[in-house]
Amino acid sequence: MAVAELATLRDRLGDVLRRRETRYLDLLRRMVAINTFTDNPQGVEELGRLTARAFESLGFRAETVPAADRRYGPHLVLTREAPDPAAPRIGLVSHLDTVFSAEEERRHDFRWREDGDRIYGPGTVDIKGGTVVAYMMLDALCEAASEVLDAATWVVLLDSAEEQMAPDFGPLCLERLGTDHSVPGQTAACLVFEGGLMDADEAKAVVARKGMAVFLVETHGRASHAGAGHPRGANALLQMADVIRRIEGWTDYDHDLTFNVGVVYGGTVTNRVPHSAIAQVEMRTFRSDVYDDAMAKMKSLADFSTVRSALDDYPCSVTVEVVFECDPWPLNDDTDRLLKCWQEAGDELGIDVLAEDRGGLSDGNRLWRHFPTLDGLGPSGANAHCSEQSEDGSKEQEYATRSTFVPKALLNALAVARLLEQR
After folding, report:
1. How many CB atoms lie within 10 A of CB 150?
2. d(Cα 11, Cα 345) in Å, to the nearest integer?
3. What is the CATH number of the domain that holds 333?
4. Both 196 and 292 in a single domain?
5. How many CB atoms lie within 10 A of CB 97?
6. Could you give the 3-state DSSP secondary structure of residue 271?
7. Where are the beta strands (DSSP E) in 37-74?
8. What pLDDT shows up at residue 413?
C-alpha cells in the first residue's frame, strides 16, 4: 500500500471512529450494566445476545456453543464469511465473563461511572472494552474500507469462562479457525483483545505470556496422642513445612520462574499429632524448557520424606496432583511478524508500538502454537479485577481510559489492512 493510500485510509477510518465514538461507548455502557460473573450463566448469556445483535449489523452470523461445564454460560462465535472461499481467516478473541458477583458490585457501588478520562465499571478494561474495540475496528472497516473487510473471513470468538480458563474454549477456537495451514482459507492471525497499555505516543502489544500450573500437595503422616503417644506420631505439618521450604527454594528470578505456596491447612486439634496437611501451589514461567523442568521438580516431591516417628521410624510421605496446567506462550517468529504490522501501522499514526511480556494468562496461551497470535489489543486502563475504592486513593476500581478507544481501534484497523495486503 502506497504511503498516500495508507494516509487516505487512516483519515477515512479515523473519521468514522471519531464520529461514532459516543455510540460505541453507549454499547460499552450497556455491556457493563449486565452482571457477567463467570458463575452467573444467565448474565453471560444476556451479554452474548447483546454482543450478537451489535455484530449482526456488520454481517456477522451468531452461534452459541454450550460450555462443557454446564455451570457456565454458552460460548459465542460470530462469523462473517469472505466472498472468496479461499480468503484467509482472522480470529478475534475476547470473553464474556468477569470476576465480580452481583453482590460484590452492589456492596462496592461498582458500576458505570465516568471521571475525567476514566470510565469505571465491571469489565471496562477486562474485557468488555476489548470487545467494543474489536467492534469499532470492524465497523470502521465496514464503513470506510469494505474491500479490507471483504478480504478475509472474520471469526469472533468469545469465551464464557475465561476467568476460570475453562479448557473447552481452546478446542472450539481450533475447530472454528482450522489448523491445517496448507489449505486455502488458513488463519492469518489470531488477535486477542485483552487490555493493552497506551498513552499519547506509545502502545504495547503482548507477545508472550507466562504459563502456569497449579498443584495440590498433600503430606501424610501418622496420628497419635500428643501427650501419651507423641513418639509414635509422624507429624504431617512438620513434613509440609519442609516441603514448602523446598518448593519456595525453586523460585529462580533469573529464569522468570516463580513458585507460590498460596494456601496451607492441616491438623484438627493441639492434642493430636496431625496425620495430614494440604497445600495449594502455583508455578509460573515464560520458557517452555523451564516450565517442563519445574513440572518435573514438583512431581519429584513424591519421593521426598524428611520426617519420621521417633518410636519406630515411620516415614511421612508426599503426594502431588496437577489440578490445572496451561503452557507458556514464549517469544516466537509468527508473533514477531504480526507485531511488525502493528509497528508499521503505529508509524503512520505517530505511535511507537512496543512488545510486552505479561505474567498473567489469556486465551492466547492456548492459541499461539496454532496461529500467529498477538494480544493486548483492547483499550488501556488499570485495576483489572478490582472493585473496591477508598477516599485516599489507595484502592481504585477497574477502569478503562476513554481517550484510548479510538486510537486503539484505528491502530488495529490499519495493522490488519497491512497484514491482508501482504497475503
Report:
1. 19
2. 13
3. 3.40.630.10
4. no
5. 26
6. coil
7. 61-65
8. 98
Distance (Å, whole) CA 352 – CA 100 = 34
Q: Is residue 262 predicted with pLDDT exceeding 70?
A: yes
DSSP assignment of 64-120 equals EE--SSTTS--EEEEEE--SSTTSPEEEEEEES-BS--HHHHHHTT-S-EEETTEEE
223 and 272 fall within a common domain = yes
Place of cell 457493563: 32
Considering the domain architecture, whether residues 105 and 152 belong to the same structural domain is answered as yes
Query: Which residues, including other chains, have CB under 8 Å from residue 233's CB and lie 6 or more apart?
Result: 221, 222, 223, 224, 226, 273, 275, 309
CA 407-128-158 angle, to 5 degrees, is 110
**pLDDT at res. 200:** 82
- Domains of the chain: total: 2
Helix H or strand E encompassing 216:
strand 211-220
- 365 lies in the same domain as 406: yes
Give per-residue burial for 231-258: e unless 16+ CB within 10 Å, then b.
ebbbbbbbbbbbbbebbeeeeeeeeebb
Are both 230 and 183 inside the same structural domain? no
Residues 176 and 158: beta-carbon distance below 8 Å: no
Residue 399 and residue 125 in contact, taking contact as beta carbons nearer than 8 Å: yes
Instruction: Using pLDDT thresholds of 50, 70 and 90, give the confidence band for residue 185.
Output: low
**Same domain? 26 vs 59:** yes
The per-residue pLDDT for 2 is 60
Domain extent for 113: 3-209+328-421
Same domain? For 18 and 125 the reply is yes
Among 308, 326, 344, the domain-final residue is 326
Looking at residues 274-292, what average pLDDT do you find?
Answer: 97
15 and 105 share a domain?
yes
Instruction: Give the chain's mean pLDDT.
Output: 96
Query: What would the grid cell of residue 383 be?
Result: 485495576
| Of the residues 304, 326, 348, the one at which a domain ends | 326
Q: What is the mean pLDDT of residues 41-69?
A: 98
Inform me whether the pLDDT recorded for 403 exceeds 60: yes
Q: Give, as one character, the DSSP assignment of residue 34.
A: S
The phi and psi torsions of 253 (rounded to 5 degrees) equal -65, -30
The angle formed by the CA atoms of residues 76, 82 and 83, to the nearest 5 degrees, is 145
Indicate yes or no: pTM above 0.85: yes
CATH number at residue 239: 3.30.70.360
Other CB atoms within 10 A of residue 321 CB: 10
Can you tell me the mean pLDDT for 134-153? 97
HSE-CB at 25 with a 13 A cutoff on CA atoms is 22
